[in-house]
Amino acid sequence: MPKITKRLVEAAEPKGRDRFIWCDELPGFGIRVFASGRCSYLIQYRHSGRTRRVTIGLHGPVTAEDARKAAKGLLGRVAQGEDPAEEKATNRAAMTVTELCDAYLVAADKGLIMGKGGRPKKARTLYVDRGRIERHIKPLLGSRRVRDLTSADVQRFVRDVQVGKTAAVVKTGLHGKAVVRGGAGTAARTVGLLGGILSYAKSETIIPANPVFGVKKPADNKRGRRLRPEEFHALGKALATGEASGEVWQATALIWLLALTGCRLSEILNLRWSEVDLDFCELRLEDSKEGASLRPLGARARAVLEALPSRQASTYVLPGIRGARRYGGQAHAMERFEEVSGVAGLGAHLLRHSFGSTAADLGYSESTIGAMLGHAGHTVTSLYIHHLDEVLIDAADRTAEAVWQAMQTGAGPAMRRRRGAAGQQEAATAETVPRQVPTPP
After folding, report:
1. Residue limits of the Core-binding (CB) domain (predicted)?
2. Which CATH code for domain 229-432?
3. Is residue 421 packed enough to be buried (19+ CB in 10 Å), middle (13-18) or exposed (0-12)?
4. In whole angstroms, how far apart are CA 181 and each of 46, 101, 169, 192?
5. Which CATH number is correct for 97-203, 1.20.120, 3.40.1130, 1.10.150, 1.10.10?
6. CA pair distance 281, 263, nearest whole angstrom
7. Taking the C-alpha atoms of 35, 40, 44 and 48 in order, what is their torsion angle to the nearest 10 degrees?
C-alpha cells in the first residue's frame, strides 16, 4: 500500500465506482475516491467488534498533511478506547440551528458553498446571508435541534418573519444602524437561504431530508414599476438643477449612468476605469452578479463617462469624495433626487427596469434586452462579442437616446412595438441592421 501524499490523491481515479486507498505508513488512514472523481480523507478502525469509519474532510480544503495529523489524533483516541464515530454521530444529532448556521458560513468562507452558475458565493452575498441568519433565522430557530425541525416549524418561521416578529433596529458600528423589517419579500428570501443551509446539512448527513421542501412561500412582490415619460422629464430637470446648484458630481453622474445603461447599482459604484472601453463602446465588467460580463454603451452614456474628471484622479469611475474608496453616498443622493423630482421610489432597480422597458418599447427582443442588462442566461462574454457587438451597441444607443430624450423633453420612444407581421419585421430590422453610432453630444 502506498503512502498518502498530495501527488497520490490528485492522481487517484475512481475506476467507475467509489474506491478506497489505504496508507502503508499510518495503518487505518486512507482516502475515498468517489465516482465523481473527488477524494476525501478518512480513518477506519474496529470498536466493540464493529468496523467504523470517520471522514476527516475533502481534499482541497484539507491537505494531505493536515489530514495525516488529524488521523493520528483520531487513531490515538481509538487506542485509548474511545469511539470517534459514535461521538460524531451524537454531536450531529444534538446540533442546533445556530451551530449549523455557523458551520455553513465557515464552509462558505472556504468556497465550499456554491451560488449561481456553480461558483462559490461572493463576499457581498455572504454579507447578506449573515444578516439574514443573525436577524431572522437564529432569533426564531437558533435553539432548535436541526434533526427536530419539521415542515410545520419552517412554515411557522415563514409566517413569523412575514408579520414582522423579527423587526428591530440593530446598531452597527459606532454610529450606524440597520433597520430590520419583515414582510413577504424578506420571508421568501430568508426561507430560501434556510433551505440552502438545510440542504448543506443533508449533504453532511446531519439530517435525512430537507424540511423546507414543500413549504409555501409568500409572493416576493417583485417590483415591476417603470418610469413614465413625465417622470423621466422630472428626473432630468432635477439632475440639471442639482448640477447647477453645486450637487456633488458623483451623485448626478451615478443617476445618469444608471438611467442610460440599465446597469445594477453595484456595477456602477464598483466600476473602474480599467473596465471602461470607450473606443469599442463597452463596459468589460470583471465581477458582476453573473460573473465577468460585457455591456454595450450607447452614445449618451459614453458622453457622460467622457465628461467625468480625469482618470488619473482615481481607479474608480465614481470615486469617494474623500480618500481612495469608491463613492458611498448613493442612498442619500437617491433620497435627495426623489424629493426634488417627486419620483416616488426612485432607485437603481427602477432605473434599470425603465431602461429595459424602453428597449422593449423600441421593439427589441427579450434576448437582446437580457444581453444589454446582463441577465442570467443572456450575459455576453468575449467568446461571442465579435458577432453581437454592433447589434448590441446599436440597441444600447437607441435605448439610451430614447431615455435621454424623455429626460430632456418628456417624450416617449418614437417607435413603439407593433403587433402582427409588420411589427415583427420592424423589430427584426431594428436588431439586425446596425446603424452608425452618432457622435456623443
Report:
1. 95-202
2. 1.10.443.10
3. exposed
4. 53, 21, 9, 17
5. 1.10.150
6. 15
7. -90
User: What pTM did the predictor assign?
Assistant: 0.60
**CA 296 from centroid of its chain's CA atoms:** 21
> Over the stretch 387-401, which tens digit does the pLDDT of each residue have?
446 888 899 999 999
Q: Enumerate the domain spans of the chain.
A: 6-94, 97-203, 229-432
Nearest-angstrom CA–CA distance, 149 and 93: 12
The whole-angstrom separation of Cα 153 and Cα 180 is 22
Cβ atoms < 10 Å from Cβ of 56? 20
Q: What is the pLDDT of residues 69-109, one digit of tens each?
A: 999 999 999 999 999 988 887 767 778 999 999 999 999 99
Cβ neighbours of 179 (radius 10 Å)? 8
Fold of 6-94: Double Stranded RNA Binding Domain (3.30.160)
Q: Within its chain, how far is the Cα of 75 from the centroid? A: 42
Question: What torsion do the CA atoms of 393, 396, 398, 401 make, to the nearest 10 degrees?
Answer: -120
Amino acid identity of 179? V
- As given in the structure block, the three cell numbers for residue 361 are 418599447
